[in-house]
Fold this protein.
Amino acid sequence: MNTVAESPLKRPGSLERNPKLAQWLRVHRDGAVSIFSGKVEIGQGISTALAQIAAEELGITLERIRMVAADTAVSPDEGVTSGSLSVQDSGDALRRACAQARTLLLKSAAARLGVSVRDLQVADGTVRTAGRSTSFWECADDALFDCEVDETAALRSPRDYQVVGKPAPRRDLPDKIAGRPRFIQDITLPGMLYGRVVRPSYNFAGPVSLDDSKIKSMPGLAAIVRDGGFVGVLAEREDVAISAQRALRLTASWREVDALPRDVHAWLKEHAAEHHVISEKENADAKSRAAKVLEASYTKPYISHASIGPSCAIARIDDGKLMVWSHSQGIFNLRRDLALALGMREDAIVVRHAEGAGCYGHNGADDAALDAALLARAAGGRPVQVQWMRDDEFAWAPCGPAMALSLRAALDPHGDIVDWEHELWSNGHSSRPGRSQGPALAAAWHLARPHERPSAINLPLPAGAADRNAIPIYDFPNQRVVNHYVHEMPVRTSALRSLGAYANVFAIESFMDELAQAAEIDAIAFRLRHLKDPRGRAVIDAAARRAGWSTWKPVEGRGHGIGFAKYKNLGAYCAAIAEVEVEREVRVNRLVLAVDVGLVINPDGVINQIEGGAIQSTSWTLKEEVKLDARGIASLDWEHYPVLKFSEVPVVEVELLDHPELPAAGAGEAAQGPTAAAIANAVAHALGLRVRDLPLTHERIAVAISQST
Amino acid sequence: MAERLQLTVNGAESELEASSDTALLYALRNDLGLKGTRFGCGSGQCGACFVLIDGYPAPACDTPLWAAAGKRITTVEGLSKGGGELHPLQHAFLAEQAAQCGYCTSGILISAAALLARNPRPTESEVRAALDRNLCRCGSHNRMVRAVLRAASEIAL
């Protein structure tokens, strides 16, 4: 789920694409520093972490930092805020840019005071020498930063960090907790109209019929907009726009396309178009020791982003220029796709980021932006706000793909794995804007001159997408991993937090437990005997110690289990231990997670991300499944798409293994796979029976019980 | 049909012109400019738009203006005292850093305020039960529960 890893970078972080120092920061006369990042706040706390990094290298207090909202007109192009890469990409670039800026400011201060840099004492931007002083703010001069970032500039040693590595309160939370306007949904511009788009809840090829005769006379209705199958309404009041949308939809019938398969997982296995062997290891000697062979198949359903706040956008067309406010994860890519869909030049469009509700991947934000732009065409220069309704969001935001997985392994007589096979079947995990020939924006597929809906693609390994974390991190003498890529897409899919890692880690770690049981070895001991990586062993040990793994007392109906992964096989290490109780439903009582993200920028930020990832994964694992009928998505409200409630949330304990000497890795996607596997293993432990199909609902458990007897 | 309606919001009388079938949510957000109450589902299933109506948490998305008229309505903006002093719950949420995206926060503060008004010293499971009608997607539940318990103990001091 990243754009940055697509080609090897010559310069660190995001400097390759944005090499000018002035692209990254500006020092103001009033004692503040503006930081420009192309990465955006999506509820993960990145603006706080980046501010910490900037303050650290500049040697100033955090309060002086102003994070500028990402904007295609002023911000560095850093691709998409995804893949847990923001601290690496933006953080690394900012670290170097701010280090160099400090050096340049000190040189300027020294010249102003007529002394050498060596003779300066600096504290929070104030520079003194022998009774005289100046400051970074007095030396502020845009010409000073009109140069390329020198990536060899000396950086502060992590040992001397004052701001990085200490908990910092989130900078956006005071507004959000006080209930002040902060979200894109809260922006009201002068003269703004409210827009809604009329769509069915399934994929379609234009309306067959539509009767707007009753709607036309609604007081306050400003326009009904039609462009082929794209139908929208504009109104002076938001409630009128909603009534018009609902009323118009009742009159519409749609040309349906793509009847959905009844059994998605069987369908995926039948429709794979490409077969990629992504890892192969052979050792005939080891293979010949195989004494016992195990096979198992696992499935994961489509999962919805299900953000509490549906997607929203604002657009205004004025004098041929389009201005868009969006909570997109990739404002530059969105601008490109808007230009394609609208037949405009990219330089006639500005996209500015505004914060939305929690974002867990490619949701409807970009689609809503095109909706708003199309409606703005009929607004006579007035701004238009489009807010998707709950059913729009469930029906039209891309889903995290369903996956089918088959694993096979052989044990030797000592209980060592001597052969390992992993096959997976999945649609692609990215259909984000900016990556295909045409626009990846829903409305574009229904215009009078329609664009083709692009298929989701997979990004290449090592990060991978459907195959993310499919290559085991354990040391097996023989292994073969195959990614069966399904091109045809019955349900629109794209990136959802952790991509394929969630299902791959669930399957691998479930299967490791099945093998451990067959070998009659403790699940943790079994993992450790196949794992050399010392950081991996350390998180497993830490989680086991914290959870009291070895002193577990068996109780009827209760179980514990472990799951472990190194996210993308490149990033954060995470071991999770779950303790569950199974009556009619599964209840997770406790989750213990040990995490190594290398250098920790904001410890409380990392803990918050791990807790959140673990709880969201618990919800996916126990409850979540997008329901389909023959036409499309049938789970269009919270009753049909239940998520974990307060009374169902487990105790979550997080232990951070700090490594200031190692590069910082993102934390937002580390916990999902290990948590799912830990819960599944704990359920198997409690029941004495394995459930291999997610989610682990009462119905699935009942099926597994009936199949076992 | 639009008509002149009176609402009592955060202790003040407000007048607005709207159809009496309009959901309270849109009157609060767009007519009165109180954006802290947020749209989530439109059917009272998620809690993002909860306000206090005569002291009880209720979904503003699902409450027509005719039903809200004549009642005491309190929004998240009304939890803080005059002069912008935050409610102890809001202080506790900040102290516990009890949010990720913050979109569900207003509605949860409302449910929590109603709980503390009728049960000043709730147990952890009472807090969880009181917040069960509010959904949080980012997984900040435990922080929020801690924050409510912290606020309860600070109010009691």
Remarks:
- Chain B has six helices and five strands.
